[in-house]
Amino acid sequence: MIIPMVRVRIMGPRERLPDALAIIQDQGVLHLAAPLEAGLLHRNAFTAAEDRRRRQLLRILADIDAVLPEANGKPEPQPGATAGECARWARLARRVHRGLAETDHQAAELEEELALLRRYQGFFAVFESLLQAGPARPGFSAFHIVLRADQRVALPVLRRELEALLGGACEIMTRELAGGETAVLLLVPTSRATTVEQLLAQTRVQEVPVPSGYGPTLLEAIPRMRSRAEAIPPELALVRRKRSELLAAQGPTLTQARRALHDRLDRMEAHALAAVTPHTFVLDGWLPVGTETKLSRALELALGPGLVLEVIERAQWKAEDAPVVLRNPRLFRPFELLTGMLPLPRYGTIDPTPYVAVFFPMFFGLILGDVGYGVLVGLLALVLHRRSAPGSTLRSVAEVAGPCALFAIVFGVMFGEYFGDLGHRWLGLDPLWIDRGTAVVPFLVLTLALGLVHVTLGLVLGVVVGARHGARQAVGRGLSALMVALIAVAVLALLEVLPRAVLTPAVVGLLIGFPILILLEGVVAAVELMSAVGHVLSYARIMALGTASVMLAIVANRLSGAMGSAVVGALFALLFHLVNFGLGLFSPTIHALRLHYVEFFGTFYSPGGTPYQPFGHWAPRARTL
Amino acid sequence: MSILWVTLSAALAIAIPALATAWAQSRIGAAAAATLAEKPQLSTTVIILVAIPETMVILGFVVSILILLRGQAG
């Protein structure tokens, strides 16, 4: 539900505004509204000095944010930050920022060097054995080449070309590498090195360069690189320890500074939202109903009777201006995740979360409708629940998946589906209600009836919302709901599901109601009525997806018998069931959501509410899933 | 009615909406990918928009099944 709000106005002597803001911030319940500008009252805009100060505080905060890791926390009152403290925090933040940047840079360089050495290590280990195996040849230059698997054909060509170029004055040694590459060591007379380089370039064979800084030859470089690779990890650990020590030493001070600076900046913003005269201030805002007495008492207790908190009459404010906060019972709260994907509903309209909490798992269960798959969804929900933090998105997903699994199991028992027809074939378990595989038409009628109930409920909710905005709108919506019901009655009478006698009254009712609807809501009402009927038909997707799901499961079971080998058949069946389960998670979710967002919400949901953001103490919020 | 006409009608009843849905989703999907690149917060709207043309193929599937059942009965 949307929590009822009350609009309040706080007035007092202008010099008490900072104290009043401090008390209001401590209470953390008032959502500040745009200032009232009338007569002598004008907006308490920032002076040039205040604006300069604000920008200065934002810069310090940016430095601190860059240093401190993300974390979650609760709002805590902080002592007001003095100018001296702010200057000290600014210096500290800059110093820690510089220190961390330095250690991060060192760590990045070391990691990069280590990665390079590890990349070369395999190659050079082979070359080392080649170099040590080969005779020391004074006056010879060495070329180190690595040929990819697809370049191996170049080796005989290279050998032939070198023979033709140098005669017998060269030596070629090769070793296979683990990745299918070939390491080649080429020893040629130094006087012919340039010619060989050109030949290598022509044959598009690349030499592996010796990393700089480890010695002129590969034989000298390899042991140095190896010892360097061993020395880097302890150096890296030292740099990381230095970083964490710096954060541990200065983190608490900076965390406190961040809170104090945020609080101070919020107070400055709130200061600018006050309307003032030369001697008084006026603050307008919104409070959840029932908290106005507490705030009034806190102000009176701290600042004496000079301040007035006045509740503004309901007739003097518009519903769309009030901020919105949703509060639902514990059982329904996880479903706020689904309604939260759309913009907040406007104040004075209806929070659809309780309806989503009832219908979403039902639609999901009707589409999946299999005990085996339902148990798997339940297990997934359990794992997610165990591995997620309270209040996180993953926890909400787990708590939504739980009821969905329960409905899938319940409908699975009713439809007699246990991984498709396995329950029937192995244990002789029959449907308690209908068999979705064969009773296609009854299942279609069931889903359309469900659609009729859901869309009509949406229209009735539209009547409730409309009644809050004007009788004419409410009558229009009510008439639409009635006409959808009459169309359903007429269709059922035509199909002889209902007695034929009700057909004429239903048609007469439609003929009378239609012009009234056009008169009340205009020509667009006719289009809306047709779209409402279309929305009911759209619920046929529950039957279509459900039938497709059970057919896929049956095909998976038949596959096991169709294969020659029982093991291969079982593996195929398992794979097919896995694919069907994947589809069974994704498809019902998307379509149940769509039925809510398009068909159901379209009849009454009014988005565009302003979120309730009370002026209080700042609390860190980490971006967590 | 000949079994050929029944099966052909059922096949067409799902094939034509399936092609229409595929075409519509390809256009919406491309636009959706471009939208999400600029405004990731619109992901819910985009999912709904991509799912909207599926109604055609789903209703095609329903009609196709009804044709088959009617064919069997006839």
Task: Summarize the helices and strands and which ones pair or pack.
The complex is a heterodimer of chains A (625) and B (74).
Chain A: E1 5-13, H1 17-27, E2 31-32, E3 42-43, H2 48-67, H3 83-133, E4 140-147, H4 154-166, E5 171-176, E6 182-189, H5 193-202, H6 218-272, E7 275-276, E8 280-288, H7 292-303, E9 308-311, E10 323-324, H8 336-339, H9 353-368, H10 371-387, H11 393-415, H12 422-427, H13 440-469, H14 471-494, H15 503-521, H16 524-538, H17 540-562, H18 566-600, E11 610-611
Parallel strand pairs in A: 10-11
Antiparallel strand pairs in A: 1-8, 1-9, 2-8, 3-7, 4-6, 5-6, 7-8
Helix pairs in contact in A: 1-6, 1-7, 2-3, 2-6, 3-6, 9-11, 9-17, 9-18, 10-11, 13-14, 13-16, 13-17, 14-15, 14-16, 16-18, 17-18
Chain B: H1 3-38, H2 43-51, H3 54-73
- Give the radius of gyration of chain A: 37 Å
Low-confidence stretches of chain A: none
Q: How is the main sheet of chain A built?
A: 6 strands, antiparallel
Give me the secondary-structure category of chain A: alpha+beta
The helix fraction of chain B, in percent, is over 70%
Mean pLDDT reading of chain A: 86
Total helices of chain A: the number is: 18
In this structure, how is the largest beta sheet of chain B organized? none
**Looking at the structure, what is the overall shape of chain B?**
elongated
Mean of residue pLDDT values of chain B: 87
Question: Distance N terminus to C terminus of chain B?
Answer: 7 Å
| Low-pLDDT residue intervals, each spanning 5 or more residues of chain B | none
SSE string of chain A: EHEEHHEHEEHHEEHEEHHHHHHHHHHHE
Q: Count all strands of chain B and give the number.
A: 0
Largest interface in this structure? A-B, 20 and 14 residues
Helices and strands of chain B, in order, run as HHH
> What structural category do the secondary elements of chain B indicate?
mainly alpha
Estimated share of beta-strand residues of chain A: 5-15%
User: Tally of extended strands of chain A?
Assistant: 11
Quaternary structure: heterodimer
Rg for CA atoms of chain B: 17 Å
